[in-house]
Write a structure and sequence with these properties.
Radius of gyration: 21 Å
Number of strands: 10
CATH superfamily of the largest domain: wza like domain
CATH architecture of the largest domain: 2-Layer Sandwich
Strand content: 25-35%
Shape: elongated
Order of helices and strands: HEEEEHEEEHEEHE
Number of helices: 4
Distance between the termini: 66 Å
CATH class of the largest domain: Alpha Beta
Length: 188
């Protein structure tokens, strides 16, 4: 029994190390409400399934109960599920969590753009790219009063100014802000 558990633990650590090293190369993707995760529990087919992350950032699993995914990577979610299941299982469960769909990784562009709306983003996206997704500014846009609204961890919101005219001419490229999930770009 001990030999089997140590092999499972070694396999789990190897899988988690692979996930951490992959995420270390780029900013680690944090799970968002609306994302779909695949939870695989080795040798426990009844516990393996796809789950939708709820609006509150939680997923529900048999035996493990509700697991919070807020501000967590898939590896961290897997570790939390492992911890929850370990209370009820004879041996340390091997849990792998994979991201199936990033349906919750969205930004919003509103105001005087040609195609306002919500946009799924699958990688790092800056303000200029988001404006391009929205079809660009219309002729009535005030390009120097654009703001990005960003929700903070405490629930408050901040407004980040963006000067389109400076960035579009190649000046102040460091001001082309990388957007975060659920940011709102407002073009007055």
């Amino acid at each position: 029994m001990y030999h089997r558990n140590s092999r499972c633990l070694a396999l789990l650590l190897a899988l988690l190390a692979g996930q951490f090293s992959t995420q270390a190369h780029a900013e680690a993707y944090l799970v968002n409400p609306g994302d779909i995760l695949r939870v695989d529990v080795w040798n426990e087919e009844l516990l393996s399934r796809e789950v939708l992350v709820g609006p509150d950032g939680r997923i529900g699993l048999p035996i493990a109960g509700e697991v919070n995914t807020t501000k967590h990577t898939t590896a961290q979610v897997g570790a939390a599920i492992t911890e929850a299941l370990n209370k009820y299982m004879k041996s340390v469960p091997l849990v792998v969590v994979s991201l199936m769909q990033t349906s919750g990784n969205k930004v919003y562009v509103i105001g005087k753009v040609n195609q306002p709306g919500e946009f799924l983003i699958n990688g790092e996206t800056d303000v200029m790219q988001a404006l391009a997704l929205a079809g660009g500014l219309n002729s009535f846009a005030d390009e120097n009063d654009i703001v990005i609204l960003r929700r903070q961890d405490d629930g408050s919101q901040v407004s980040i100014p963006f000067e389109y005219s400076r960035v579009k001419t190649g000046k102040d490229l460091d001001k082309n802000i990388l957007l975060q999930s659920r940011d709102v770009v407002v073009v007055p």
